[in-house]
Design a protein that fits this description.
This protein has helices at residues 30-36, 40-47, 56-84, and strands spanning 9-11, 23-25. By secondary structure, it is mainly alpha-helical.
Length: 85
């Protein structure tokens, strides 16, 4: 599919709300889209923490944040896929 089949801004479905809050610019440069989809730095930071350093409450919050960032990253990668196809 080419760029003109994608809406310019598409909602990012990462929050349980009735109305989208965050939108993705599907026409942004591919390099910008690719760099925004990366959660590697966050994952690298988390991997250095020892389990004894994280409380259950903190682990739940971290897991939720990683989940949301991963969903956002997947949506960005989907746009990249459509654009390069």
């Amino acid at each position: 599919m080419t760029d003109h089949h994608l809406p310019r801004f598409t909602p990012i479905d990462t929050h349980d709300t009735e109305h989208p809050v965050f939108y993705l610019d599907t026409q942004a440069p591919l390099s910008d889209l690719a760099s925004s989809a990366v959660v590697r730095d966050l994952m690298d930071s988390l991997s250095t923490l020892a389990p004894k350093d994280i409380s259950d409450c903190d682990l739940t919050r971290i897991t939720r944040g990683v989940h949301l960032l991963t969903r956002e990253g997947c949506e960005v990668l989907e746009v990249i896929q459509w654009r390069v196809a």
